[in-house]
Amino acid sequence: MREMVIERLAGHRPGRRGFGGTSDPEEAAAFRRALADEPQPGPGFTPPSAALRPAAVLVPLIDHADGMAVLLTQRTAHLSAHAGQIAFPGGRIEPDDADAVAAALREAEEEVGLARERVHVVGRLDTYVTGTGFEIAPIVGLVAPPLAIAIDPFEVAEAFEVPLSYILDRRNHQRVERPSAGGRRAFFVLPYEGRNIWGATAGILVNLAEVLAE
């Protein structure tokens, strides 16, 4: 499995996908209109790159002997943005970060205590543009157990693992549509052990499954 993951990620040429986890421009535009809090833009609207805030997340693949798992976090309930949601360690790319990889490794170290020297970066997934104006670079890294997790209690309520085999099973990728602001909001949901993984996190996990299935 480890060799396959490295090979597929090394051979992947990151594209760009938008709201709802889709790489189709027209569908992404429809999701964008459905998600927007402001008046709906016209058909085919794409925000200029300058208006998007660059961010990076680490997609940590824990290389257990009995199968890989993805490390995720649940954000604390008091945060002003995305409170209580399931997320990857990550955040904005700061001026002091050399690049997206550096930002993802820094955020993982700050949020869950994952030392950057423990992470073997093997590639990146498609850039993910969110309805809240972030342009996220998902960086994939392999991590050898055992883990010494030390969460930041201000940002992270808990950290937990989801087996990679669960994520690779397309039957677990539920596509959901809901009414929203006069339109329809569509997104992926991956239900796992009483948790609903959705939004950008679910979209990135679906992209990971697509890349590893190529």
Give the full name of the CATH homologous superfamily: Nucleoside Triphosphate Pyrophosphohydrolase
Number of domains: 1
Task: Give start-end ranges of low-pLDDT stretches.
Answer: 20-50
- What is the alpha-carbon Rg in Å? 17 Å
Helical residue percent band: 25-40%
Largest sheet: 9 strands, mixed
Measured between the Cα atoms of the first and last residue, the distance is: 14 Å
Structural class: alpha+beta
Into which percentage range does the β-strand content fall? Answer: 35-45%
Can you count the beta strands? 12
Count of discrete alpha- or pi-helical segments spanning 4 or more residues: 5
Give the rounded overall mean pLDDT: 83
From the 3D structure, determine the CATH topology.
Answer: Nucleoside Triphosphate Pyrophosphohydrolase
The CATH C-level class name: Alpha Beta
Give your account of this protein's structure.
It is a single chain. The chain is an alpha+beta fold. It has one domain: Nucleoside Triphosphate Pyrophosphohydrolase, CATH 3.90.79.10. Helix content is 25%, strand content 36%. The protein contains five helices and twelve strands. The strands form two sheets. Strands 1, 2, 3, 4, 5, 6, 7, 8 and 9 form a nine-stranded mixed beta sheet that branches. The protein has a three-stranded antiparallel beta sheet with strand order 10-11-12. A hairpin with a 4-residue loop joins β7 (127-129) and β8 (134-143).
